[in-house]
Amino acid sequence: TPTDTLIGIATSRRTPYVLSALSYARAQGALAPGPVFISPREMREKGDCEVVVECVVGGEVLMGSTRMKAGSGTKMILNMISMGIMICLGKTYRNLMIDLKPTNTKLLLHAVCIFCTILPHSPLSDQEIEELVGRCGGSLKIALVIAWLRCGVEEARGWVGGWVGLGWVEGCLGQSAS
Of 59, 77, 163, 168, which one has the greatest count of Cβ atoms within 10 A? Predict the structure, then answer.
């Protein structure tokens, strides 16, 4: 549909499945960008791509293998795309991932560190921050809003839900604390 996006990934010269999928997606009205690493011309001409991301990495050390340079290039481009999506969806604040799910001790420590970076003057101890994040169902976003606005969980959920996308932190934390 016009609201869908299909990213075609082609790391070799012959990519019939990727080219066919891109053509079908475009025929359905979807956005169809295609990162390519060996032969951008074929993707542009036959893939019916709206956008072609060229990352020509050169020949592989072992001829016939597309797993080394092209694989590394693919990973870098897909990481950039997913990072951009996370930024646009409001899952980050500045250079911090704030929509992480603290499902283990390491991620909970990350959540506490991020909380303290965003609200460095918070009177809460690390243990209190961990408990607050737990009371918020693991949502660091909601915990930050509660600590800043000194409100309850439901009110904080309303604030977070009302600010979708890039400006949610500025919108929520831009409010004066009670």
Answer: 168
